[in-house]
Amino acid sequence: MESCNCIEPQWPADELLMKYQYISDFFIALAYFSIPLELIYFVKKSAVFPYRWVLVQFGAFIVLCGATHLINLWTFNMHSRTVAIVMTTAKVLTAVVSCATALMLVHIIPDLLSVKTRELFLKNKAAELDREMGLIRTQEETGRHVRMLTHEIRSTLDRHTILKTTLVELGRTLALEECALWMPTRTGLELQLSYTLRQQNPVGYTVPIQLPVINQVFSSNHAVKISPNCPVARLRPLAGKYMPGEVVAVRVPLLHLSNFQINDWPELSTKRYALMVLMLPSDSARQWHVHELELVEVVADQVAVALSHAAILEESMRARDLLMQQNIALDSARREAETAIRARNDFLAVMNHEMRTPMHAIIALSSLLQETELTPEQRLMVETILKSSNLLATLINDVLDLSRLEDGSLQLQIGTFNLHAVFREVLNLIKPIASVKKLLVALNLAPDLPEYAVGDEKRLMQTLLNVVGNAVKFTKEGNISITGFVAKSESLRDSRAPEFFPVPIENHFYLRVQVRDSGSGISPQDIPNLFTKFAQNQAIALRNSSGSGLGLAICKRFVNLMEGHIWIESEGLGKGCTAIFIVKLGIPEHSNDSNLSFIPKMPVHGQTNFPGLKVLVMDENGVSRSVTKGLLLHLGCDVMTVSSVEECFQVVSHEHQVVFMDVCVPGIDGYEVAVHIHDKFTRRHERPLIVALTGSTDNLTKDNCMRVGMDGVILKPVSLEKMRSVLSDLLEHRVLFESM
Length: 740
Prior knowledge:
- Strand 14, helix 13 (622-634) and strand 15 (638-642) form a beta-alpha-beta unit.
- Among the domains are: 24-107; 156-234 and 242-259 and 269-318, Beta-Lactamase, CATH 3.30.450; 411-491 and 502-534 and 547-586, Histidine kinase-like ATPase, C-terminal domain (Heat Shock Protein 90); 614-738, Rossmann fold (3-Layer(aba) Sandwich).
- By secondary structure, it is of the alpha/beta class.
- The chain has a 6-stranded antiparallel sheet with strand order 3-2-1-6-5-4, sandwiched between helices. Strands 15-14-16-17-18-19 form a 6-stranded parallel sheet, sandwiched between helices. Strands 8-10-11-13-12 form a 5-stranded mixed sheet.
- Helix content is 51%, strand content 15%.
- It is found in: Endoplasmic reticulum membrane.
């Protein structure tokens, strides 16, 4: 027991309790002071915390409590043991709880801050989503309005309806007090009030287009807010105490059509705009929102597109109407031209026959008169009549050829002929005239020039004779040279005729003919006019009034038909000229065949009369009938004449060797006569030769004659020499079809 009583505790119990209280008060004070610091940090970091004053109050309370406990450190007094134990226990528990709370707040506050941060982020995101949804809804609403407006605007392509519909729909959609459209005047210097929303009849007054506010709007692609007091915004008089509503203006591009064509897109003039002015109600505090301005801009663009479509439609309809008018005019002109062509052809056909019939009488009687005894003076007169008649016959042929060339009815008569003989015949025909004028005419044919060729012999001879005839006509003294050779490929092209493209083909060649004279020559500036019909060189025409001006024009067309080219070269007046033409001819497969259809057209030197040859002549025209009979009688023929088909049927017999008939006389069907004669005489050697003696030059007459079995066609007029040649060839070959 003593030993136990000797062991004393290091700290007395009361002192130990005091120590515990002292330590507890220290930790309580420390916890109290740390909690406000943590709360201050939390409030500072949590900018959106809504109850800051509560935290401040709570912090002050804790500070005061902490200060109270801190003060207790210096106010310890001895109490009873029970009170000391209770106080110690309470303080220890308070210290434990306070420290635990302080430690827990250290861990909880960062979590609370992160939650608040996420909450703030989510709130911001939610607000952003709300704004985006608002924009989407606004855009959807704007799009719906735009679609609705576009549908209404484009429901018509009438310009006035488009503009009026635009104002009405904008006013209804945006609840506008007024909406107006200013259009540029024709001069482009002013804007005119053309359309308004509320006024049925706009005033129509104008403002200068150079106003600063107008330039500001025209220079911007967006809607521009303008002053309600500017000239273009004073659309209605102000009434009452309300301030005018906000006004915006936007430009509307106008399509400017210039030289609109079907395949060309019109040009858009960037300087021509209309001005659309929109005014909010005056009795409200409304302002223009962004989506409303975007709606106005989109509608302005849609109006521009609709106006462009309307302008294109108006222009296309105008072009269509103009085209229809032109088509009607062209159709009328075509019908008139066809009527004129038919009338001309009918006229030429009648005049051809009617002119050739008296020409036949004049030439035939003149040639018969030449065979009689005449005084030199009388013979000169007869020769003059005969030459003049031949010239008139040539003119008739030229007019008919030109007419058929122009309407495209003339076709080449392709056949094999003696090319060298054509040159010699032209030379023989021209020599008598040249000898009278004492001109030397030389013919030079290249050794490689084929003797036979395939082409239109008559048209080639007509062209060559016309060119050589012009050289003789306009040459008073000197010489004329005719050269014919095969054109080489390098000499085919002529820079003066870029449209002439010679294409060498197998079994074909290009004949080049040059006729050079030492005559009066031609001015270079007059050369292009030589190939114009009824046109002559004035200097030449003054010295020589003969000729119609058709020769070279017809030659040019003949040469073009033969896929060639013709031109004239001359260094000037008094220096002569050279006529050159190139034509395309074929090479016959067998050049040495004896059956080539070349018949020399030389004067008949053998049998000049045909005594006892029985000939029947059928012609309704008494003069022509008498003239033909006179020619045949002069040649020794036994001639019988009839004037009708019935008479011909009655008198024709196997004794008649030749029957001449005019197949183009009204009221007489010569083709029926030919068919009847064929039926009457079934044996060929008993049937007379049937020859059409006609003044018609169309190919249809020749085809019809061949169709009914006629043996020949002779074209009026007929001279004594021609009749002699015709009978000789007819009796020798039993067939003779003269080229039309």
